[in-house]
Amino acid sequence: MLAGKKILVLGVANQKSIAWGIAERLHQNGAELALTYVNEAIEKRLRPLAETISCNNVLPCDVSSDQDLDNLFAELGSRWGRLDGVVHSVAFAEQDDLKKPFSETCREGFKKALDISAYSLIGVSGRAKRLMPDGGSILTLTYLGAVRAVPNYNIMGVAKAALESSVRYLAADLGGQNIRVNAISAGPIKTLAASGIPQFKSLLAQFAEKAPLRRNVTQEDVAGTALYLLSPLSSGVTGEVVYVDCGFNIIAM
């Protein structure tokens, strides 16, 4: 389905990452991938994973650095000359700001969470469009906490709300260049990032009990929808937040 397509995937931390599940599915469908790492610890985990999908494009990028973003896209331009898709699976909040009451969120923590979790999509998209002369697809990952007050999600909920709004404005901005921008709102999955959310195990248990499909979401669930949104099958879809959460978002009470 994606034979000959060149896709950048940001945010693989280890084999449990949602971004890794997506990367594997894209590889299985013929895409050539580039993966990024933010530091040496992530790089050590990422390179062995990249080898399993024959990915030779493993590049450094701290999305909070404009210089790093410039270097990344310059390198992709040099290696590939063009880009067909981007998977943005990047988010961060200080542990302290997740644990304490939301009303006590510190200013610097707020800035950092919004910068890395939301602004980075704008920074990535603005550079990616220059490598998409024939159009493309940009995909990010969000969560229900963007539109509901989820216990212990706190500042990340506000950051995800900004991210979802950015998806709509980017879709409107880039649509004339045939670049589609969408988000997947995934149900809770046990990832490295999720481990930082207080009482996450309890959240998983309650989710499986209350979701219409009576189970938790998997990497494979999200990867299948990502494949659709990055492929020609979704050629008329942009600015959308697609829920992949076993139906949890439709439930009240």
CATH fold descriptor: Rossmann fold
Task: Report Rg.
Answer: 17 Å
Give the uncertain stretches in residue-range form.
Answer: none
Oligomer kind: single chain
What do these coordinates show?
This protein is of the alpha/beta class and 253 residues long. The protein has a single domain, classed as NAD(P)-binding Rossmann-like Domain (Rossmann fold), CATH 3.40.50. It contains 8 helices and 7 strands. It has a 7-stranded parallel sheet with strand order 3-2-1-4-5-6-7, sandwiched between helices.
Task: List the defining traits of the structure above.
253 residues; alpha/beta; Rossmann fold; 7-stranded parallel beta sheet; 8 helices; 43% helix
Map the helices and strands:
Layout: E1 6-10, H1 18-28, E2 32-37, H2 40-52, E3 58-60, H3 66-79, E4 85-88, H4 95-99, H5 107-128, E5 136-142, H6 155-174, E6 179-186, H7 200-210, H8 219-230, E7 241-244
Parallel strand pairs: 1-2, 1-4, 2-3, 4-5, 5-6, 6-7
Q: In summary, what is this structure?
A:
The protein is an alpha/beta fold and 253 residues long.
